[in-house]
Amino acid sequence: MSDAKSVIEQTFHEAGLEWESPADGTYVVKLPGTRKLSTTVSLIVGKHSLSVNAFVVRRPDENHEAVHRWLLERNTRLYGVAYAMDRLGDIYLVGRLPLAAVTPDEIDRILGTVLENADGSFNTLLEMGFASAIRKEYAWRTSRGESTRNLEAFARLTSKADD
Fold this sequence. Notes:
By secondary structure, this protein is of the alpha+beta class. The chain has helices at 2-15, 64-75, 104-119, 122-143, 155-162; strands spanning 18-23, 26-32, 38-45, 49-57, 82-85, 91-98. It has a 6-stranded antiparallel beta sheet with strand order 1-2-3-4-6-5. A hairpin with a 3-residue loop joins strand 3 (38-45) and strand 4. The model has no long low-confidence stretch (mean pLDDT 93).
């Protein structure tokens, strides 16, 4: 267990990541994003395994079946983690590794997978599960002359609002 903790801490330091350890064997690391500002990942070193958990997006407002299907189809291609939902329907990436597999390369690979699939899928999940809210927000902002800069990624959805 102490070897795994040392490997995790060393990997975080070498990668220059922002992290903290709120309890012995528990780590919270912030991964910088491009679509999301950041993705917060929790790693917990247990007696036999390392658990990994990262929030992706809250429960979709609409189009649940398509969102869930997309997540399940993506799960077949993920390494070390899978999309999951909590009792509220919020979407996470979760995984578990045996402690023997905790190496710097493996931690880097898992964090990369989490970042790619939390940050990389963020806009797609928003488009699928929150299209109506995005359109309403765009219309509200434009009616008041407010900036829509952070909605530019959703121009495909909001261009219809301009017509």
